């Protein structure tokens, strides 16, 4: 693929690939639309609204991802749900201060949930999205009836998440799509080429000279990582938030992920003894990408 070739992109045209890869009994043209909520400061938070009627679930992705990371899960579930692009990701507006913490993201997500999914039966968050949903549940408990945290706990550290951060902190721009695909494949060796190509098209965009760059805001990655992963005070506050939970909690751990370890799971049990813990064998950090059918089954059962 040469630099000058412009690659067509239709975000709703690839669901058939998800269906074929995972043998899902679903329509290749599901009911899904892009919606948005304007925040008081003028920023826009974008989301994908799946199905008809009020969303039963809210799905929130991790750092450097976007709402399409949940496509296969959404197709497998076949219910009405809302998948949010966090600020600074996907089609949502970037923050002027380039700081993306669970605390400030939760305030933005609360506005979106209140407007678009106020009666959702569960809020599901992966990685940064999981910590964001934890803060959301703590600060806005009436919006969350069940909480699911996917491969994340307040015990996360930069050391545990090193493999993930190494990928996120790589180059911002690539001369060609093939270069971007090669790097993505290197860091995701168990994924199919079709899946990775689809993910790149959703999470990167081609500029006028034919090169490619990620969609997400990388300006604040270093600051956000230190705030989220290396500072004891925010982690302590997040553990306290787990202890204050008033709704059922499910923690989904990727069986092959280094991000959540046994000590983290013990921490969850100590702070919230009734929490349900499940391990998805063969899944890395992005359980929704590695084992989406299994994750969908756990969500269906839990809610």
From TrEMBL:
It comes from freshwater metagenome. InterPro entries: AB_hydrolase_1, AB_hydrolase_fold, Carboxylesterase_BioH. Residues 55-292 form the AB hydrolase-1 domain. This is Unannotated protein. Pfam families: Abhydrolase_1.
